[in-house]
User: What shape does this take?
Amino acid sequence: MNLFLIVILGVNSFLVILLYFIMRRKRKLFSERFGAVLAMSGTGIFSLNIGLVVHLLVKDEMSLLSVLSIMIGGLIGFLFGSLVKFQSILTGFTHGVVGGIMGTMLAAVILNPALCNLPSSYLLNISQNIMIFSVFGTILSVISMGLLCYSLRV
Assistant: This one.
């Protein structure tokens, strides 16, 4: 399971880096509004997914992982926001932090379904739920990246 989560984390990190360099190369083509949309949508999705996978990978240290997810989300938001103007940095940072917190909360619920008063039958399927949510998040990241790259062509 850990190898699977490491691969998912690597794929998501690669997607973030690839999208950043694609947008950095084409940053002269888009306006401030598109930069704000890029900072909001890209940062939120990638931060949520990376926060989820990091928390699922290291299950022991809850407070340390929360701070790490927030810092990773803020860094992703800062990077994507810095492509345009300073207002986009604030937007990207905020959405990155919120995405990191949401990813941490989602992982906590996946690992302990009793937090949301889900039935005890979900405790039997934790490893299956980990795989489903991490693959779904990766697919969501790929779709978001594709839509952001496609929006530059339209």
Q: What stands out?
A: Residues 36-153 form one domain. The first helix runs from residue 2 to 25.
